[in-house]
Amino acid sequence: MKFTYDCECCGHKLVAYTHKLNKMMVSSLEQLVEFYDQNHRRANLQKDLHLTKNQYANFQKLQYFELVHRDSNGWLPTQKGSDFIAGKVWVPNTVGTLGKKILEPDHPAWETHQRRIDWVKVGDYIPTTYKQREEYQDEKSLTLF
Questions:
Q1: CATH number of 22-92+115-142
Q2: How far apart are CA 86 and CA 93, in angstroms?
Q3: What is the dihedral of CA 96, 97, 103, 105, to 10 degrees?
């Protein structure tokens, strides 16, 4: 995305950025949802979750997708975030921001975005089902020594 905007009030230049959902972010969300479901309280990312440095550094981007919310007491999943992990809803794989605001789908900045935006489900990032015994047996029979 190549979009800039000069603020009429102060002349400050704002730049639009895109943020792409990835496996590490979805895994972080999954940890938060599990923690919240078990403890019924907001999470402290450093004390309550087992995040890598990458996951910790990018966790706040989940807010752009409206999957998490933060207040002075910590982080919690939104209903949309819980539903996404449960496989009930799809979300866009890319969102845009301009300053501190999330870009609406009809914002002019999207006209400069070169890539396609897809709607994704949790299974696109992390497995939601486990292999059955038959699948393991089929794989074993295909193994050549």
A1: 1.10.10
A2: 17
A3: 0
